[in-house]
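Title: [Solved] LIM zinc-binding domain-containing protein 3D structure

Original question kept below for reference.
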Amino acid sequence: MNMKYNFIDRINDGDLSEINQKNLYCISNSSESLFNEHNDMIELDNLLEDLYNAKQVLTHSDTSTSSSSSPLFSSPNSVSFRPKSDSSQFSETKKSNIIEAEKELEKLMSSLTMYKSDTRINRDSDRNCCYQCKKNISGQVITALGYLWHPEHFICNHCKKSIGTSIFYEKNMKPYCEQDYFDLFSPKCAACSNPILDKMLTALSKTWHVSCFVCYSCKKRLNDESFLEIKETAYCKNCYINELAPKCVRCNQAITENFISALNSYWHPDCFVCQECDLPFNSSCFYDYENLPYCEFHYHQKRGSLCSGCKAPINGRCITALNKKYHPEHFTCSLCQKKLNKGTFKENNERPFCNQCYQKLFF
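Solution (posted by the thread starter after getting help):
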C-alpha cells in the first residue's frame, strides 16, 4: 500500500515532523470513502495488515535507536528500515514523534477494526431484509431473483397480484405472473391476436400460430405446403389458380407458369398464335386486328387489303376497282394482261378488260 511505503520511508529519512494526527485521519477518511463506495471487506483486511506491519516497524525503530550498530531490518512485507549509523542523530524529539506516530497508528487500527465489524453487521442485517419493504423477515420467506421477499410483497410488476409460489417470469429483474408476461412480451398471432406460447410460424413478415396460418379462401392450413401471396394475404395453390390466377384470353384457363403479355391481355405461349391459321409467329412481329393477333396474310385478308391479282398483301399504293383492291402493276386486262388505268377499262362478269379486248370478245 502507498500509505505504508511513504510512512516508513519518512522514518528512514529521519523526517517525522509532518506526521501528525491530521495526516493519519486523512488516510482514515479516504479509506472509509473507498470502502463505502466498493463495500470491499477484503481490501479492509489488507489495509489492517499493512498498518500492523507499519506499527511493528515503528516499535522496532524505537528500541533500535539506542544501538549504533543495528542491522538492516525487513518487515514481513519487505519494507526496509535502515536506522542512521550514528545513534546520536536520533534526538529525543524524534523519539517522541515515533511514539506519537505509533499511538496514532494504534488508534487508526482500532477505528478500522470497529468499522469492519459494523459493516459486517449491516450486511448480515441486509441479508434478512425483504427486497420490497426493506424490513426484516421473521416468518415465511420467498427467495427469488437473488433477493428475499415477504410472501405478500412478492407481486407481479404489472397487475400487482401476489405471485406466491406460482410460476413467474423475469424481465429486467422484475417478476411477472405467467399471464401478464405472455400478454406483454410474447409475440402475437397476426390472425387471432393472442400470444404465441408454443410453436410459431413466420410468414408475410408476421408471426402466426401454426393452426391460424390458413388459406384466406378455403381455410386450409398452410404450414405444410407452399402458398402464394396476393396483397399480403396467403392462398393455397388451388384457390389461387381457381380464383386469382390470370386467365388466358384465348382458352380462358388459369396461367400458372410462363405467359405472354400482349394486347393488354395474358396468353399461354401455345395460345399466342395467328387466330386464323393457328401458326406461331416466327418473329416478335404480329398484326393486331380487333385486339387479336394475326399473321400478315390473314391480317390483310381480314381488312380486305389483299391484292386481287397476286393475292399478296398491299402495303403501299393500291387501285380499287370492281369492289376489289390491286397493286397498280397487277390491275391488268383479263385477256391481254395489258396494264389498265382506273377509268379506262371495261368490265364483264366482275372481270376487267381493255377497250380492244372488250370489243373483240363481246361485240
